[in-house]
Structure formats: structure tokens, C-alpha cells
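Re: weekly structure request thread

Next one in the queue (404 aa):
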Amino acid sequence: MSGLAAAVRLAHQGYKVTMHEASGHAGGRCRSFHDNTLDGMIDNGNHLLLSGNRSARAYLREIGAEDTFTGPPDAAFPFVDLKTDERWTVRLNAGRIPWWIFHPSCRPPGSRAVDFLSVLKLAWAGPDATVGALFGGAGAIFTRFIEPLAVAALNTPMETAAAKPLWAVFRETFGLGAAACRPLIAADGLSQSLVDPALDCLRKAGAEIHFNRRLRRLVSSGRSATQLEFGDGLVELAPDDKLVLALPPMGLNALLPEIAVPEGSHAIVNAHFKLSKPPSHPVLILGVIGGVAEWIFVRGSIVSVTVSAADALADRPVPEIGAEIWRDVAQALHLDPALPPFRVVKERRATFAQTPAAMRRRPGPKTTFENVFLAGDWTGTGLPATIESAVRSGHNAAMAIAHS
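Done, posted below.
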């Protein structure tokens, strides 16, 4: 996504763009595919945008795909606690003053309005602060509001997850009220919303796009990269060419070992279930407390579940994972407990481990080479490694090229 965002922005600015994609498809982890078991299209994972994700929304406008995302008409986040069967909806009001926290019907059960002041701890969190240490891991405000959002955003256990980037999320979304917090989901699929329109946009702009072109070596002279070595030969870089490397941390480290990159990663597990008919439960997104499932997404007759920071779960056999997650889904959505056809997708290195130490190793878009720039959700955007971070990093690289 970071590479696509950089390519689209530069093409719109009049640059001639050539894109070399290592795999056979663009978009990285954001992709859709036809699953034979479910006999339908699914996404490799569930990616949620919020209306306050300004970089992702700008990217969608640039590729003409903003209307391909859908969501509830207001900023509402329904939850269920499987241990107590309590159900509630966090519902924000318009405007920046959070009047909603004073209404018991708009906040988690067991929480008080004054408890929400604890979110401000994130604003003053030091570079070494973790989410778990900051909030102590107790109380309804943490277990029923902060933790579900933090685990999803940071994909890191709370005891080791850096607190600082979570404040950036709250500042850009919940801190701006309902207008910035409406959930948005790709109506048909991630590829149809985020990838295919971008490729069409690039082709219309005259860009060259090459697939299955993994960069094996970067040849340099002085302070400039001069050649790209692919498996099938070399590509010469002209003196005025600029290069954006949109690679995962370890991929960049193999090419430019002198650049510090975040170390470690955490898994995300997604489970997709095919129902005989769409569920009658009127929900598009549902947060789950007290189970293995964490977030449930409903799109027609496909019910998808995301579990973040799921290293231990990813090590378990697929049949066990599917059965255990389905028990949570059946209870949450009042469905038949009989296990339907399902597909489990394990992303073992879904994001880098977003610890305080890793945050200090996030580079900016510039490198020691005058013509080489970096993009990736793991670079120094100040945000967790999300779609918003990936797109913003691409825009940061484009901006650095324009200024160079």
C-alpha cells in the first residue's frame, strides 16, 4: 500500500512512474482472492478505516474509489462481552467536546465519565511507556474500550506495546468527534477498493507496472544508487531518477543493512465463515470481549473474524482455530453452533512488534543516498502500522522527492 500511495501521488504530480512489484499482485497484505472452500471472494485480512484517516481518504479520492467503502451512518462501535453476555455500543457525538462520555448508554458498562480522562495519559506518555504499564490493565475503561482498540491498532501485547503511537490514533480520530470516527469497510473487497483502482489510475497516467520483479541488490556509486539488480537483469538509474523502496523491514535490511529497522513481528489470524444466508443480527462490525475472537465483520453471508497479537493462536492447528473462533461468533451473533465451511488465514509477520524499542528504529523517508527514499507502514509516521500509516508513508516519500 505504501508503494502504491507513493506511485499514485507522484504520477498525479507529473512524474513518470515505473513500479517493480516483487510478487504477482500489488497491495501487499491488502488483497482479495477467491476461496474455493467458501466459493466466494474474501480478503486476506480485515482492515478497518475510520473517517478521520485523512491520508487513506485522500488516496481513495486520488484513485476515484472513495465511494467503494461503506459503514454505519454514525460513529458507533457495538460490543459484546461473551462472559457476561452484556452488549453495548460506544457512540460518539458530533463536535469535538465528548458529551457522549456523560451518557451511560453511549459508554461501556461499568465505566464512568471521569474514567475517560485516563486516555490523556497517552498524550504525556514517554518514549519508553507501554500501554499496559500506563493503564495498569484493570477497569472497565481499559478492558472494554482502550484495550480492544489498542490491540487492533498496535498488534502487540499490551505489556510490551508502545503507548505513544496510540495517542496519535486517538488524536486524529476519537479526539475529533463523530465526524472522524465513522467506521469504513471495503464494500466488495480490499483489492476492488484499494488496489485495482490504483493500478488503473497509474496505467492511465502512463506508468509502467512490472510484476514478479523482486529486487535482489542495489548497486551504488558515491551517494547515489545507480543500478537495480533483479533476477532477470539490471535496470540502470538515470541521474535524475528517484527510487522509492517500499519493502518490509527485513527486506530493506537485506539491501541496505546500514539502515536501522524495527526488529521482531507479531501475527494476525483471520477466520472466514460461509453461512447459508446472511445473519439476521443487524451488525456490520462487532467488538468481542472475553473470547478468542476480537472483531467480527459481516459482509453478506461471509462472516470474518480478526485476532491480533495472535502468535500463540497461529501455532495451533487450523481445525482447532476455526472451531474455537466459531463458538465465539455463534454466541455473539446468535447463530447455529454447528461449524460452517471456513477458511483460516495466518499472517505470521503481519506487522513489526510495536514496542518502545522498535519505535526508535523507525526511519524517515530519506536515506544516505540522495536518490533513494523509503516507504512502509513501519517507517516513522508516528502512527501504528496500519493502512493509514502505509499510505502516509508513501505520501511522505513523495513529498521528500518533490523537495529534493
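The two ends are 23 Å apart (CA to CA). The chain has three domains: 2-70+185-263+355-403, 76-181, 265-352.
Next request, please.
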